[in-house]
């Protein structure tokens, strides 16, 4: 048995006394060894958020039994909850256009087994990155998008996502706007990297906007995609210093590094069950 | 004579071949020892920007003569230029309301003689900070502002600025909007600290806006004040990480530290002649 | 009653199953409302660390009773523990020499009531900062130190610390080395700011050392003082970028800002009971 | 002709009046259009450093003629100088062991043509990374190193470096110590990435050292290799925050990202002629 295998319980519920006691009492009763634990009480929403990593081998039963036994507690507190298993790798479907820095970065992290995800396929509206992706043994699907074919194209994207049993759709600098029905079909399961420090410079050509405004830092934002463009819950952000000597192409170059880093961190938090939705915001247990 | 005394020449002009040669040739001809030199050519505006610090004692003549001798070069290249003298301290008029973290920080830097400015007086629409300011031997002027008295109040501000021979008006968390005629009277001479990473969260209560949006970093912006609220040329910015556990009051607390740091850096750049205006943007020779 | 008043329970003990369940079960049984909770299991030392903030008014009894009721749990698990009360402000004795940037910064944070500490007195080996300190209404004690008077001087420091019922002794750029008996008398209760990113540049004149080595970042370290100079457990650190154009005096100037920030953060963590000792290292629940 | 082609003049010499005037006068006389210019006067060494980028097409003659014409000025001021041509790509020989994050990062930047270098071959003491490198069409040379074969192995490294006409040897996490004769053969031409913030944690297993000391930030250092292990002139450094919850393997993971970033920036500065040696330190004109 894998001595490092962990079950991760992530939950939220209306805040009240006794949640931690109930959950930790339950785990202790079954000899569950807690490896990592995080809590958060949000005053604005009056909700409580919790994440527990339990050593799998410390329990006398399997994941299904854990889930079955936990149901009464979940129901008593009105919990929104899930348990994941570190032995089951998260299945990511990557979407890209022509920019390949995030793709290269994520494929490297996958090769290095940096965290628990697999890239199960890549979907693109261009054929430019096929050779590099296929060298990794990962299927590459060309799904061109034109104004006329857009509905059909995204139906195909959803079909491929289903076929590959994707857990999460990652837009790694995919330069098309997803139609609302795709956003609606995968709530909290589409992760995008936007190349600005949102809410500044939403929409098109953010580096040109940043250059025109003369800001002294540029940034990137990893967020969940909703039907409201660039306004979904933010998972992770970062910034980097620029100055008057930097042209738009320099911002683009610096930006690539910050986009890669922010997407990689945001995706890791998401894959490891560290991100819980709190209305239009996120709780991120780093 | 002060061996460290320096003259600082800052200029901009339409870009062409020979500007550096003309200026450095002029300085070399008079044995001017260049301590620090910075250049920038802006492609968008086709203007050239330059800053030179010259050791005063390396020249055989004084500042007036330096200015007189430089006129032909300035005219030949259509330069917008100024020469300042490190022996003449920059005269800052500080405006504050009730928040005193930037005031405390700048008064400390003044006491420590961290860079070449004096706080010649403090103007406030409240009397709360009088004792602390007066302990430093600095005059404190209460100029209350109400909707009715606003024009008269700002006429008084301008009068005080003139009386104290101010070089720069610094809004150190002064919570009133300056009327357009004050902005127009002191172009490039009013420095503000805004408590957000502009252009995000312009206007009122930026920390509340940031909390509501769920951003993962907050920031501050030091900029020149123009009649267009929070849209003047940016001098300096910075950001600091926050997370879901931080309430608005935590953002305010972290924000104070970043506001202090950003205003102090921005003001130093301004006082040392490191900031040149390039239309709606700045060139900052750090 | 103060609706925001909190009791903070901080503990460590040998790691085993059931610690969280016991503590949270105990709190839930008494209707204790947990505001903030943090855990850490250290594999190297096989110890478990925990910090809980409980809303005081959620409990039906007072702090003494809380402590009394908790004893059986603490004994069952072999806990090293303490409970503090946010209504009781932490008593800081500040020591300084001539450099006053950290002093100015901490006195401002005290005036602004930024976190729960009072500066109960200032002790210095120079008289230079008396006027500024006394303006705040804080007693200032001159205790000169020479090689001959050192033992007597530090006996006086300990006497003053006792007289003022100090909780923590903060060396805010106090440029004397504490004798071993002072370190031994106040284990985990002396906080120092060192002006380098330890372990680089321990000892004297760290900015000169940094300049000589040509590093591209400088830093500061807040740590507990032990008899082993500059080797005590690290609480907080940070760095800032410098370059070839910066002389030693520039490093000193940048360094002041980073020292202030690092000491203020480190002291806040300490005062709020967020720092737990783990042999030669610290657990810091931010 | 390439409108963006640039000649870069980098020089240092004893400091005196008239250097900038002589160089910029020379360039102006030949209608040289200066795109970027940087100066630095080092008081400690009394040397002056300068870098100028000139638009190639603004000159009426070619690079050889530029060099020929500049000789009298260089001799008059005792300059140490070089002129490079952006049309001639810098030839990098990469050395790696088993860790491939820096390799992957640099090969990506090469594919993306992010700055002016080619990876002309990869040399490794292991065969693990051959397939990935060869997919890029880059020759891969296995040169095993054992205590007995070390002299022969490094003679082969130098032979390969010569055969491929390398400009710079980059140790991208190459885990062998170069013998002094290799260091001596390529002064200022070997660039290493060390996985700590030097001078802290020089030598072996720096992340283990950092974990043991309990530092709150870890870092990486890009430096020139000299015979004095990990003590060569520093080109670039950076740090990233860690905390008590991070094990050695977490430090390694965070460290990979900071190593990649620091090596990439340091190599870009080197390739673009932005790094000038100043005894045991560097001047880096970013």
Which structural traits does this protein have?
homotetramer, 286 residues, alpha/beta, Alpha-Beta Plaits, Rossmann fold, seven-stranded mixed β-sheet, 8 helices
Can you characterise this structure?
The structure is a homotetramer. Chain A is an alpha/beta fold. The first copy, chain A, folds into 2 domains: about 5-85, Alpha-Beta Plaits, CATH 3.30.70; about 90-285, Formyl transferase, N-terminal domain (Rossmann fold), CATH 3.40.50. The first copy, chain A, contains 8 helices and 13 strands. The first copy, chain A, has helices spanning about 20-30, 65-75, 100-110, 130-135, 150-165, 180-185, 205-215, 250-270, and strands spanning about 5-15, 35-40, 45-55, 80-85, 90-95, 115-125, 140, 170, 190-195, 215-225, 235-240, 275-280, 280-285. In chain A, strands 7-6-5-8-9-10-11 form a 7-stranded mixed β-sheet. A 4-stranded antiparallel β-sheet of chain A has the order 2-3-1-4, with helices on one face. In chain A, helix 3 (about 100-110) packs parallel to helix 8 (about 250-270) and helix 7 crosses helix 8. Chains in contact: A-B, A-C, A-D, B-C, B-D, C-D. The interface of A and B includes residues 243 and 283 of A.
Q: Which percent band covers the strand fraction of chain A?
A: 25-35%
Quaternary organisation of the protein chains? homotetramer
Across the major sheet of chain A, the strand order is: 7-6-5-8-9-10-11
- What is the name of the CATH architecture of the largest domain in chain A? 3-Layer(aba) Sandwich
Low-confidence stretches of chain A: none
State the helical fraction of chain A: 25-40%
H/E element string of chain A?
Answer: EHEEHEEHEHEHEHEHEEHEE
Which chain pair has the greatest contact? A-B, 32 and 32 residues
The Cα radius of gyration of chain A reads: 20 Å
Task: Report on the biggest sheet of chain A.
Answer: 7 strands, mixed
Shape of chain A: globular
């Amino acid at each position: 048995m894998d001595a490092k295998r962990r079950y991760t319980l992530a939950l939220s519920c209306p805040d009240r006394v006794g949640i931690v006691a109930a959950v930790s009492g339950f785990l202790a009763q079954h000899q569950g060894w807690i490896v990592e634990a995080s809590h958060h009480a949000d005053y604005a929403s009056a909700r409580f958020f919790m994440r527990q990593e339990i050593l799998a081998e410390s329990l006398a039963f399997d994941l299904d039994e854990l889930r079955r036994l936990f149901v009464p507690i979940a129901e008593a507190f009105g919990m929104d909850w899930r348990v994941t298993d570190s032995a089951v790798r998260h299945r990511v479907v990557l979407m890209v256009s022509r920019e390949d820095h995030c793709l290269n970065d994520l494929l490297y992290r996958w090769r290095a087994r940096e965290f628990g995800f697999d890239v199960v396929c890549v979907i693109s509206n261009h054929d430019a990155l096929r050779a590099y992706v296929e060298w990794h043994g990962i299927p590459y699907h060309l799904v061109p998008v034109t104004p006329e074919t857009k509905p059909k194209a995204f139906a195909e994207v959803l079909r491929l996502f289903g076929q590959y049993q994707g857990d999460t759709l990652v837009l790694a600098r995919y330069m098309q706007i997803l139609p609302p029905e795709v956003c609606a079909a995968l709530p909290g399961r589409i992760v995008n990297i936007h190349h600005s420090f949102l809410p500044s410079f939403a929409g098109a050509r953010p580096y040109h906007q940043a250059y025109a405004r003369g800001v002294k830092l540029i940034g990137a934002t990893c967020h969940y995609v909703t039907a409201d463009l660039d306004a979904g819950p933010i998972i992770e952000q970062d910034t980097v210093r620029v100055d008057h000597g930097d042209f738009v192409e320099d911002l683009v170059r610096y930006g690539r590094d910050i986009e890669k880093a922010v997407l990689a961190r945001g995706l890791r938090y998401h894959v490891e069950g560290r991100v819980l939705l709190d209305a239009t915001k996120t709780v991120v247990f780093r």
